[in-house]
Amino acid sequence: MNGKKVALIFILFSLTILSSCGNLKNKPYEWTEYELIAHALGGIDDETYTNSIEAFEESYNNGHRLFEVDISITSDNKLVARHGWEDNLGQGITKAVNYKEFMNTLYHDKYNPVDFETVLNLLDEYPDIYMVLDGKVESPKDVEVLYEAIGEEIEGINKNIQHRLIPQMFYEEDLEVIRSYGFHDLVYVVGREEYTAESIAEFGEENDVRVVSLSRKRITPELVERLKESDILVYMYTLNDEDEMREYLDIGVHGFFTDFVTSFDDIE
Predict the structure, then answer these.
(1) How far is residue 59 from each of residues 4, 48, 63, 65, 131, measured CA to CA in Å?
(2) Contact criterion met (CB below 8 Å) for 136 and 72
(3) What is the torsional sign of CA 37, 38, 40, 46?
(4) Any residues with CB less than 8 A from the CB of 139 and at least 6 apart, and which?
(5) Helix extents (H) in the chain
(6) Pair 3, 231: CB distance under 8 Å
């Protein structure tokens, strides 16, 4: 083989490697094939925010494979699936209680509460599901405390299970903390910090953060378009009206947190 042929092969090989690296950088997270996220494990019997095992089972049977679960810390420092402690949410609880009391108090007198261990067990039992973790935090310091507790819970677990746990982050400085516990895929919930479309896009590009979530009041066609240019997908929270979803699909929104919509095909 002469020198020119060797050089040509080297150039083609180098271009292939560079192309592959570029594609890898911009590759969407695999779970974004699912456009609907069952909010708080999904609604059940017109009830929301139960994060209950019954809600999970109903949502799964209705076709959901991507779930959001709220994570709070009990008064005795255990991780449970609870949307904070301020509202009773059908449990009659309005402040942090201990683990035993929480787990023994049904939602609406019939739905069973879930703890973090159950979340991990569900991921083990159902290998086709993903869980988006909505930590109920108010500051970066809260994030450190929460993920220290989560880190202890996941120590030594199967990597396939951890891979299907998707943390939400609310502050850019959360990134280092969350990634230090071995998580990669993230949902950046926009709104607690100052931001522009450009700042979000640059942060996502630099840190391989490929998904953001936005509320109605923060979403604009221009923001969605700028993020799309950087291969960043937008999920909106929390929508239950199919006609409203169609309007946002038209401006490029990728998916939605929802309590009761079960099929994306119905809204396309």
Answers:
(1) 61, 12, 6, 8, 13
(2) yes
(3) positive
(4) 171
(5) 3-25, 53-61, 99-103, 116-125, 140-154, 159-163, 174-180, 197-207, 221-229, 242-249
(6) no
Non-local (6+) Cβ contacts of 169 within 8 A are 143, 175, 178, 186, 187, 188, 189
Residue 175, φ and ψ in degrees, nearest 5: -55, -50
Which residues touch 113 (CB under 8 Å, ≥6 apart)? Answer: 51, 52, 80, 81, 82, 91, 102, 103, 105, 106, 107
Tokens of 7: 């050089």
CA–CA gap between residue 131 and residue 40 (Å, rounded): 10
The answer to whether 268 and 242 are in contact (CB under 8 A) is: no
CB-neighbour burial class of residue 79 (10 A; exposed 0-12, middle 13-18, buried 19+): buried
Instruction: Reply yes or no on whether the pLDDT at 15 is more than 50.
Output: no
Residues 6 or more apart whose Cβ sits within 8 Å of residue 176: none
The Cα–Cα gap between 236 and 125 comes to 28
Distance, in Å, from the CA atom of 116 to the CA atom of 165, rounded to the nearest integer, reads 11
- 186 alpha-carbon distance from chain centroid: 6
One-letter amino acid of 41 = L
User: At CA 84, angle to CA 235 and CA 133, rounded to 5?
Assistant: 40
Using one digit for the tens of pLDDT, what is the confidence trace for 185-213? 999 999 999 999 999 999 999 999 999 99
The predicted-structure confidence for 17-39, as pLDDT tens digits, reads as follows 334 344 445 678 999 999 999 99
pLDDT score of 268 more than 80: no
Q: Answer left, alpha or beta for residue 42, where phi above 0 means left and psi between -120 and 50 means alpha.
A: left
Within the chain, what is the greatest distance between any pair of CA atoms? Answer: 81
The tokens describing 89, both together, are: 């949410």
